Amino acid sequence: MKRLRKKSRKKPVPRLRYPLTRSIALVGLMGAGKTTVGMRLARRLGIPFLDSDAEIEVAAGHTVSEIFEKYGEKDFRDGERKVINRLITGPNIVLGTGGGAFMDEDTRKTLKEKAVTVWLRADVELLVERTSRRDTRPLLQKGNPKQILRELAEKRYPVYAQADINVESGAGAHEEVVNNIIRKLNHYLAEERLKNKGKQDDKPAIR
Ligand code: S3P
Fold it and tell me: pLDDT below 50 — which residues of the chain?
């Protein structure tokens, strides 16, 4: 007897359905996957990926840890503000921002104005596991990383939630997180186009 082939339950791989009107900025806590997911997202969209921490290090000629140690967090945030403003003003990119960038009022304003902001949300347990692989994050060297991440999550999550798009960045495949970002981007861009069209229609016809 002929065997019926089971229908695949896999969701189709989404593609961006509208032209990108501006850059995409990923925000979220340390270990949320901003770099790993960001690089994959950029590849899928055919635009460059840049990481704000890496760009700050190039501009300053010091590692992030060195900047914190030698000059303090305030100077780091000042540099971060300038670098992010420069990066987000050029051609479209996917920008992975440092975890504290979106907490700075001016940087947040710049990102909200000039990019589509995406919050990669992850559970603290997962962040603890992911961040334990490297000791390059000065904020986590100050005490118990789990406790620090928990406190940061409490303080920062309500602010990260102001991002245009929120996506869960769990323990599953990064490619699936990318798929979810693209699906939500399609909704976001479609709504934006509708809003803009509404604005055009409202304009008085000048003859
Ligand atoms: C920070 C996050 C780090 C880096 C710096 C401060 C933060 O970036 O910018 O150590 O305040 O959360 P990642 O989120 O890429 O680790």
Answer: none
The CB-based long-range contact list for 150-155 (8 Å cut-off, 24+ gap) reads: 150/124, 152/29, 152/30, 152/99, 153/29, 153/124, 153/127, 155/103
Q: Which secondary-structure segment (H or E) carries 139?
A: none
Ligand 1 atom closest to 136 (CA): 10
pLDDT given for residue 135 in this prediction: 87
- Other C-beta atoms within 10 Å of 131: how many? 22
Best of 30, 75, 133, 141 for a ligand 1 pocket test (most atoms within 8 Å of beta carbon): 30
The reported pTM is 0.92
β-bridge partners, 166: 119
| 23: phi then psi, degrees, rounded to nearest 5 | -70, 170
CA 134–ligand 1 middle distance (angstroms): 12
99 CA to middle of ligand 1, Å? 4
Segment 140-173, tens digit of pLDDT:
999 999 999 999 999 999 999 999 999 999 989 9
89-112 pLDDT, tens digit each: 999 999 999 999 999 999 999 999
* Whole-angstrom distance, CA of residue 205 vs CA of residue 207: 6
